[in-house]
Amino acid sequence: MTSSETNHTHADREAIVEAAKKALEQGEVMLSPEEAARAIGCGERWLRDGANHSGFPHHRFGKFLRFSLQDCREIQEMNRERARPSDLAKARRRKASARPAGSDRTKSSGTRFKPAA
After folding, report:
1. Burial level of 72, CB count in 10 A (0-12/13-18/19+)?
2. CA 14, CA 16: separation in Å to the nearest integer?
């Protein structure tokens, strides 16, 4: 490898590093645990524990813990609980399925009133 190839490669690498710096400056915001907890709507201790022990997505820069906006979205999705039918809704479905097929509540009522003319 000649010195001109080395210089060219070094210049290319410097350009890549400068482009990466600009992209980072313009790119995603990194939040402290306190800021991320407020954005997510949880406690800072819970968020820190989740990052340290429960596999929450995060970034570490030395001793500093940081969360990107994408990390916050993923943490919210990880902790989302799917809706489950209530006991009342389950009871209604059981009652509806137990009714005979030909029965209709409107027909079973005794007296029908006609509106006055």
Report:
1. buried
2. 5
- Burial label for 117, CB within 10 Å (0-12, 13-18, 19+), is exposed
Q: What is the pLDDT of residues 14-54, one digit of tens each?
A: 888 777 777 677 777 889 999 999 999 999 999 999 999 98
| Helix, strand or coil, per DSSP, at residue 67 | strand
Token code pair at residue 1: 């490898």
Residue identified by tokens 């005794």 is 110
Structure tokens at 37: 């907890």
pTM beyond 0.70, yes or no: no
